[in-house]
Specification:
The protein has 14 helices and five strands. By secondary structure, the protein is an alpha/beta fold. It folds into two domains: about 160 residues, P-loop containing nucleotide triphosphate hydrolases (Rossmann fold, 3-Layer(aba) Sandwich); about 120 residues, no CATH class. Strand 2, helix 4 and strand 3 form a beta-alpha-beta unit. The protein is globular. About 30% of the residues are buried.
């Protein structure tokens, strides 16, 4: 467990300072809800908070040298308990939640805090959420709960309302690009990878540059074929869903947003868009409305990713709606 990693993530400095102030003032809540999209460092932040709380040093926590910090590095701390979705599971299971609740009910092995980290909290179903609710309402002494969730509406309000929120924001592009440069990402394609990652630096660093750029080129071709109605929609939907679907949805969001900006500028300064397409003014507003509709549907598909819904069928319906029924 590399709980010091967060100290290299510049955009999380404000969150660290907030936690340090709460810890120093003895005002730590019993539960944090870390809301973050993928690639912003929610996991490293939760690890760092756990280390700061469990650290046995009098100052500079986490110190990285005390017995507790050494146990954390070895992934062997008896007072830290984790829950995440099992491989290929769509939800955090109720048995996992009950195991966490049971572990947190015991006295701390080292006489300090007990920390529970629950990742993918937005996937809690009604039964799991209800089982977890009592622990949130009446946590045992010196217990800290860290819930990590995607910023969606799927997390039950009864859970979210009992936690102090930490919302991780996408860093400014200049800050993110500077961080990527320091971490060895080549200049060529750096900005494209960041855009493809929706501004999330850790996600951009994970992407294979060549593969990501190839995907971008393929998406340009696919969308052009869809607009020209020269492609089988079911084949497009099958290919997208089976290969990097979340990344393709981000690309589609970026493409739609660029188109909306282009048409908006055309409406303000003339009717010729940056795609060299000339539109009558009477059609300009209708086309922009259609793009906003497609943007809403793309975001809904992203929200549904990871659920039991048939994504290929949902994508086919979206493509038919926006590229056929115009």
């Amino acid at each position: 467990m590399d709980f010091k990693k967060i100290e290299t993530l510049d955009w999380l400095e404000d969150a660290r300072r907030q936690i340090q102030r709460l810890l120093a003032g003895g005002r730590l809540p019993h539960a944090f809800l870390i809301l973050s999209k993928d690639g912003l460092g929610a996991g490293p932040l939760a690890d760092w908070i756990a280390a700061a709380v469990l650290c046995e040093s009098a100052s500079g926590r986490p110190c990285g040298a005390c017995p507790s910090c050494n146990l954390l590095r070895a992934e062997n701390h008896p007072d830290l308990h984790r829950v995440d979705r099992e491989d290929d599971a769509l939800q955090v299971k109720i048995d996992q939640v009950r195991t966490l609740i049971d572990a947190l009910s015991y006295t701390s092995y080292r006489g300090g805090y007990k920390v529970g980290i629950l990742s993918s909290a937005e996937t809690l179903n009604a039964s799991s959420a209800n089982a977890f609710l009592k622990t949130l309402e009446e946590p045992s002494g010196n217990t800290l709960l860290l819930l990590i969730a995607a910023p969606s509406h799927r997390l039950p309000a009864t859970i979210a309302s009992r936690c102090q929120r930490l919302v991780l924001r996408t860093p400014a592009p200049d800050l993110a690009l500077s961080w990527l440069e320091r971490n060895g990402l080549a200049e060529q394609g750096r900005a494209d990878l960041l855009q493809l990652s929706h501004g999330a630096p850790l996600r951009a660093l994970e992407l294979d540059c060549a593969s990501a750029l190839n995907l971008s080129q393929e998406m340009v071709q696919s969308v052009a074929q869809l607009e020209a109605r020269r492609v089988d929609l079911s084949l497009v939907a099958e290919r997208w869903v089976k290969s990097d679907f979340p990344l393709r949805l981000i690309w589609l969001e970026n493409w739609i947003t660029d188109r909306i900006r282009s048409l908006g500028a055309a409406g303000a300064t003339g009717v010729k868009t940056v795609d060299a397409v000339v539109l009558p003014r009477s059609l300009l507003k209708a086309k922009i409305r259609g793009l906003f509709g497609l943007l809403d549907d793309a975001r809904e598909l992203k929200r549904l990713t990871g659920t039991s819904i048939n994504l290929q069928l949902a994508l086919e319906q979206t493509l038919i709606k926006h590229f056929v029924r115009e």
